Automatic annotation (TrEMBL):
Name of the featured protein: Membrane protein
Membrane-spanning parts: 30-50
UniProt keyword annotation of Transmembrane helix present: yes
Keyword annotations of the record: Membrane, Transmembrane, Transmembrane helix
């Protein structure tokens, strides 16, 4: 079973890619890039490390 961080990562990937395609050329590319990047990292690793 997938843990909560991986599910959140998949949601961030979906949200970021949706923002990228729906709001094309609206200046939200930076936000969608951050969401897709964080979602990809969290989906692969499944953990958050805070030091």
């Amino acid at each position: 079973m997938m843990n909560k961080i991986r599910i959140l990562g998949l949601l961030l990937l979906f949200t970021g890619s949706t923002i990228m395609y729906i709001y094309d050329n609206s200046g939200l590319d930076f936000l969608s890039g951050i969401l897709v990047g964080a979602g990809l990292i969290w989906t692969i690793t499944g953990q958050v490390r805070l030091k």
